[in-house]
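Practice problem: predict the structure.
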Amino acid sequence: MEFKQLVEVAEKWCSSVPFDLIFAEEEEERRLDFYAEPGISFYVLCPDNMTGGIEHFHVWSESEDCLPFLQVAQDYISSCGKKTLLEVLNKVFTSFRPLLGLPDIDDETFEQYHAGVEEEPEADHQQMGVSQQ
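Answer:
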């Protein structure tokens, strides 16, 4: 993906989270820097398969306080399959939720997801070998 498109994805992501894109540089490395109060910063190195750069996204922080929280995102990036910038940013955001003073994502996501989902009524059918008495 062209760097300009990656910057656009990052800017759109920033519009829905407390992070700001504070720096985007393509000359030496395809790097996007993000910042949020209270002093949470990280950067993403973007893949550049066209010129022999890195093959996968990489997240890091200059702040030692932030590094332990980025481990979850690093593990996610290292897992099977290629990831998109949006997937990486969302994983970083999830990792930083405690530092941002936000509630646990799992509970909130579960409630938001199920709030708008109407459950289908279960059909009255028997499972093989199980009596419904």
